[in-house]
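@channel sequence for tomorrow's demo:
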Amino acid sequence: MRKKRKKIKNHKLHRAITHIKLHFANSGKLEKLNQLSEVYMALVQAYVNHIFDHQLKEVTKFDDFPDMESGLSERYKRCAWQQAVGIMQSFFSNERENKPELKKISIQGNANIIRLEVSKTSSFDFWLVIATLEKGKPIRVPVKMHVYGYKILETGKLCSGVKLEYKKDQWFAAFVVETMNKKPETSGIIGVDLGIKNLITTSTQHFGQFSSKLKDKVQQNDLKRRRKQKLNACLENKGLEPVSLCNEKLNGFVNNEIGRTINLFVRSLSGETTVVLERLSVSGMKFKSRAMNRVLKASRIGYAMDRLKEKLDLNHIRYATVPAAYTSQQCSCCGYVDRSNRLTQEKFVCKFCGYTDNADVNASKNIAKRFGDDELNSITDFREVKSLLLKRFFERFPDVCSASGRLELGVTLRKIGDSSPTVNQSA
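structure tokens (generated this afternoon):
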């Protein structure tokens, strides 16, 4: 009989083409676009205020939007509502307190208000047909694609959504390209360790090595922050409004790296994979060095964990969480737990069996082994986790325990023999 080939399902990926300049539009069209953006952003801010004032934390983009006076059409109002809901969903998930004040000008339009047409001439690649405040009188903006955009266009087809942004006294457009990629055939249980040097680490691979760049940017930000604090002190004495201490470039860099890393990781998974994550308490994580604590805060590990879960849900990939206590101190080979096992931030050497590995890789293996361990997962106090792990270790290697109840690491291996010790933590 002929064997049936296993079908590999395709899945859709979306890639953005950004920074497309709209500098070919004449001054009249740009003036109409400026007038439109002013009214549009005022409506988005009004919707944001409404959601904030009523604390609508369960609001969705498909809910009925409140009736507010505006010169925009119903289609524009729907787009403004969806943009405001997206802003507030991020606001509530990050547990922010101050009401958002929108300073950036951006219009996230769908095919109902911004239509993309392929140009029939060689002068331009596309035409953006944008609805304006005047009913039935859209403007047609010519678009010339840059080299990087051509490369992305070759991989898929354009989606209908277009984003318009105004920055540095110029209008830009952003397109979205939908591509089809084959899912890899990797499956099974994969443990994931989130960190600073490597954002995502599994037992076989690292994703997102941006810690060196992040440290440099944090140091630069510290210098700018000190200068701004001195400036604010002078402004306060003069009764003037202080400048913002927030570094949007740093936050944007971190968010982009997190998004890119998570996309790469999710693409490496199949639908049969179960991803095992740690139950992280970011508020309790800290270093002795203040500089490293600032890097830890800038890395936004908690945000990365939330984004990873959202991406796994979106791609219908199952995930589970396990206790994070002592995953970095426990040996994935024999199960021995000791803080001295981790000699440095990167290197792990077990004091009992001598097993050596990258510290993050060793932690990811421990995380994967804790999946399905009901006894361990039911523990809420992290101190009890270590007691249970050491109890299992002593049951596996009873000759290790001395009369005083401590470990005799110097003679342990000679007592047990030449065989490499192993442990089944889920037993």
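heads up for whoever presents: The chain has a mean pLDDT of 81.
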